[in-house]
């Protein structure tokens, strides 16, 4: 298993470097000069200032040289300096990463738990009213844009009912500590995590349902039933466990999409994560910061995928690690 | 104030001052000649008079929205709107400006101008300390100027006319200009020339100085905490040099990226102040009607944002003056004001906003007249050639305005193609002159020499640069007038020059002026004295108090 992990990590590093190089060129293809953006914000138009900024950004150097400097930095774990924010990129990302991880992992847990639960029920009661109700419920959240669900949630739970805070990570100025602080953060987390989680829940529900119905038809389920196992045991031990493989695959794939969804969720709920940092960096053509966020996000996706591969083994012991 | 009361300068300076026949007379005596001698303290008292009707209460916390999150708070190095809005509380300039743009004292308690309008003497306020307790002196002013010349593009341009700066003592700064520069007294507000603590920055790498992230100023509020992506917290400066101020204990600047979420934050009572531009315009009437809500458009007089359409004068149909004039007639600017901007702002008459100096409305008028526009287009031989329109990617209001203008122009027979882009992409296209019509708005900084001329003089045509003469308009008469206007004395002469320039420009229509924008500040009515100067919420909350 260790050699499998080592091999995957090595492959991951190569993929990561490829992503860095690709993104380095991709973001430079987009029109928009960071020096002009900054000069504009400063209300300045003189050539000396723009030239100075280009020199500061290193944009006056040939592109291959810029790439070499950047890749050299990344290899030595230096993600560079954000000139717009006047701080090291790693520091900026480090400040925001915990909030994004909290949001995405909670949303991931919500979507997976509810998705598998609802999918199991839908499959168990396939063709009944409950099955239809679950499917409709899941599809409603899948069909609606995330920002819309978010705004409707704010309108209902913050403005009308005043149950939940409409924005932020914590109550500003409350200076809470310990459990009170954790409870406060949890209260702020409910709406963004649910908004993001319910969107992805639909696919897990559908996938679990379809997969379970398929597995249910297989011979070994008949055998299990023939040897007198209870329905609950068959569903849990034999059907669900075998049906989960495609769900796990999907969860691995979703890890990247989840971060994409977090950009919108973090914006609407003013959640201080890297999604918003990435969006702002893109608008301002803050190349180093943008690339830094890409590197971190890619690393996260690769890690999630590695975990997915490891989970396969747990779910289905027949799978070998000698990939 | 008589000459004898003027303490501080060295003997040599006094002698030179006498040689130049300084006149230091009281503001009361010389009120009609503010350019000669200004003792802003009295003016400040006058400005504050209405506020004194109600005794300010001490204490309380204000929650205000800041959008977008500032990239940094070191005002000398980062110059953008949100940075100034927050850091205008931490740092200070030598002067502030009244809504009529008269200078008011801040770190300078008085100032005088020589007869030849080439020497300006600032007397600094005594007893001012930085937030770390060190005294603020003339050496800090001198250091700030040297730093700003390298880090602050606008300050560098403004200081180009300065020959030398001297500090004869700890509380006197003398600027000697190469030639008279009319708007010189207008370049000292906190955003244009923030004072930087020499003892913390001298001899350090400014870019990575740790105080960039925990700025130390002389302002009424001190930096306390910045939770990136969440909030910035400022606390009262107990040693502030204006006795009794600030009145508030703390300010929380809340970072809420989504416009709808900012509206909700106000509605649910989580924030008390929505500075101009925080919410989409279509939300303003609804929020304004909320209980205990007050709205003001004041506080933008210094910046005087003026919106216009860049028209690429170089190529295609827009190279013809008649087509550009047709655009002025074709666009229904009253509709834009009343519907898109909810009645806020004012239809622009020309290159100067009515709030800045030397404005005149005695210029050619362009009322909404589609028939006249069609006639002009016909006369110019326009045959439906495609014209590219770049809206401003600043949100829904600007998007809607882009659509309205497109419809107006199509109504008179023009073929318009809207180009979708984000701000950075749009700026690049404009800077590279790859556009036909493009929306923009720019600040005017109170004086045509600071914020108007830059867009029309031919020496400012430079490919690859933004916010200069990107339309490519070139008129030697205009170049000459703006060159003369900046250095002419007295003001009556400047007035004459700039009025002439405005008339020529309005006839030539190098760009299509749309609206003098007004960004309404929405706040709880319990927040008093939030805006007391022409710089508004960008000038710090030192006068603000809560009527609890």
CATH class wording of the largest domain in chain A: Mainly Alpha
Beta-strand percent range of chain B: 15-25%
Regarding CATH, which class of the largest domain in chain B? Alpha Beta
Q: Over all CA atoms, what is the radius of gyration of chain B?
A: 24 Å
What is the 3D form of chain A? Answer: globular
Residue fraction in strands of chain A: under 5%
Main sheet summary of chain B? 6 strands, mixed
Assembly annotation: heterodimer
Number of strands of chain A: 2
Integer-rounded radius of gyration of chain A: 24 Å
The most extensive interface between chains reads: A-B, 56 and 60 residues
Proportion of helical residues of chain B: 25-40%
Write out the CATH superfamily name of the largest domain in chain B: Dipeptide-binding Protein, Domain 3
Structural class of chain B: alpha+beta
How many beta-strand segments of chain B?
22
What is the CATH superfamily classification of the largest domain in chain A? MetI-like
Sheet with the most strands: spatial strand order of chain B: 15-19-14-18-16-17
What topology, given as strand order, has the largest sheet of chain A? Answer: 1-2
State the end-to-end distance of chain B: 40 Å
User: What's the tally of helices of chain B?
Assistant: 16
What integer is the average pLDDT of chain B? 88
Keywords (chain B): Signal
Organism (chain B): Bradyrhizobium yuanmingense
Pfam families (chain B): SBP_bac_5
Domain Solute-binding protein family (chain B): 103-448
């Amino acid at each position: 298993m260790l050699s499998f992990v080592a091999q995957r990590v090595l492959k991951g590093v190569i993929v990561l470097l490829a992503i860095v190089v690709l993104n380095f060129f991709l973001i430079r293809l987009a029109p928009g000069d960071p020096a002009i953006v900054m000069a504009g914000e400063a209300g300045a138009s003189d050539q000396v200032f723009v030239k100075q900024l280009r020199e500061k950004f290193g944009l006056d150097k040939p592109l291959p040289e810029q790439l070499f400097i950047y890749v050299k930095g990344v290899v030595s774990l230096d993600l560079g300096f954000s000139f717009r924010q006047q701080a090291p990129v790693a520091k900026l990302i480090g400040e925001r990463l915990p909030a994004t991880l909290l949001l995405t992992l909670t949303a991931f847990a919500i979507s997976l738990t509810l998705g598998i639960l609802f999918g199991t029920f839908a499959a168990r009661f396939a063709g009944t009213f409950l099955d239809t109700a679950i499917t409709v419920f899941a599809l409603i959240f899948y069909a609606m844009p995330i920002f819309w669900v978010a705004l409707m949630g704010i309108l209902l739970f913050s403005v009308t009912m005043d149950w939940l805070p409409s924005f932020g990570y914590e109550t500003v100025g409350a200076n809470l500590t310990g459990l009170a602080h954790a409870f406060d953060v949890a209260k702020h987390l409910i709406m963004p995590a649910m908004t993001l989680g319910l969107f992805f829940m639909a696919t897990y529900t559908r996938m679990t349902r379809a997969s379970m119905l398929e597995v249910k038809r297989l011979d070994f389920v008949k055998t299990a039933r023939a040897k007198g196992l209870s329905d609950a045991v068959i569903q849990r031990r034999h059907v669900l466990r075998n049906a989960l493989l495609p769900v796990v695959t999907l969860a691995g794939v979703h890890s990247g999409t989840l971060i994409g969804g977090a950009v919108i969720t973090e914006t609407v709920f003013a959640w201080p994560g890297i999604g918003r940092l990435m969006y702002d960096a893109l608008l301002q053509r803050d190349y180093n910061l943008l690339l830094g966020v890409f590197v971190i996000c890619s690393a996260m996706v690769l890690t999630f995928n590695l975990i997915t591969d490891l989970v396969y083994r747990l779910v289905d012991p027949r799978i070998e690690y000698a990939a | 104030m008589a000459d004898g009361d003027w303490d501080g300068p060295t003997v040599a300076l006094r002698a030179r001052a006498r040689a130049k026949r300084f006149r230091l007379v009281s503001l009361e005596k010389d009120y009609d000649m503010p350019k000669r001698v200004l003792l802003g303290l009295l003016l400040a008292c006058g400005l504050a008079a209405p506020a004194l009707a109600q005794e300010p209460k001490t204490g309380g916390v204000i929650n205000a929205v800041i959008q977008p999150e500032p990239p940094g708070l070191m005002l000398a190095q980062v110059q953008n709107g949100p940075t100034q809005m927050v850091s205008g509380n931490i740092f200070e300039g030598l002067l502030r400006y009244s809504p009529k743009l008269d200078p008011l004292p801040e770190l300078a308690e008085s100032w005088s101008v020589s007869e030849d309008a080439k020497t300006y003497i600032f007397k600094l306020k005594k007893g001012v300390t930085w937030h770390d307790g060190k005294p603020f002196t003339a050496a800090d002013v001198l250091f700030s100027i040297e730093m700003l010349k390298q880090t602050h593009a606008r300050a560098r341009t403004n200081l180009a006319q300065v020959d030398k700066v001297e500090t004869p003592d700890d509380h006197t700064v003398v600027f000697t200009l190469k030639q008279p520069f009319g708007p010189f007294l207008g370049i000292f507000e906190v955003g244009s020339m923030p004072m930087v603590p020499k003892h913390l920055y001298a001899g350090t790498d400014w870019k990575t100085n740790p105080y960039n992230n925990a700025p130390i100023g002389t302002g009424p509020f001190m930096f306390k905490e910045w939770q990136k992506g969440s909030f910035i917290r400022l606390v009262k400066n107990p040693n502030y040099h204006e006795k009794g101020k600030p009145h508030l204990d703390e300010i929380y600047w809340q970072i809420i990226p989504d416009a709808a979420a900012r509206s909700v934050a106000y509605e649910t009572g989580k924030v008390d102040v929505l500075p101009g531009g925080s919410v989409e315009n279509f939300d303003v009437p609804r929020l304004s009607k909320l209980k205990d809500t007050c709205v003001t458009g004041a506080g933008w007089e210094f910046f005087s944002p003026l919106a216009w359409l860049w028209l690429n004068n170089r190529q295609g149909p827009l190279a013809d003056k008649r087509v550009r004039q047709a655009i002025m007639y074709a666009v229904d600017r009253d509709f834009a004001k009343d519907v898109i901007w909810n009645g806020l702002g004012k239809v622009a008459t020309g290159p100067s906003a009515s709030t800045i100096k030397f404005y005149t409305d005695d210029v050619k008028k362009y009322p909404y007249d589609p028939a006249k526009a069609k006639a002009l287009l016909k006369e110019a031989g326009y045959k439906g050639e495609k014209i590219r329109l770049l809206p401003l990617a600043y949100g829904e209001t600007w998007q809607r305005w882009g659509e309205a203008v497109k419809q107006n122009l199509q109504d008179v027979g023009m073929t318009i193609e809207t180009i979708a882009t984000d701000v950075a992409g749009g700026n690049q296209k404009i800077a590279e002159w790859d556009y036909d019509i493009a929306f923009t708005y720019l600040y005017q900084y109170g004086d045509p020499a600071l914020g108007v001329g830059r867009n029309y003089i031919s020496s400012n045509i430079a490919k690859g640069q933004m916010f200069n003469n990107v339309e490519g308009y070139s008129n030697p008469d205009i170049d000459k007038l703006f060159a003369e206007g900046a250095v002419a004395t007295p003001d009556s002469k400047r007035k004459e020059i700039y009025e002439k320039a405005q008339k020529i420009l309005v006839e030539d229509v190098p760009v299509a002026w749309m609206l003098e924008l007004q960004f309404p500040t929405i706040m709880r009515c319990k927040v008093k004295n939030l805006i007391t100067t022409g710089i508004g919420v960008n000038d710090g909350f030192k006068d603000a108090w809560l009527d609890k």
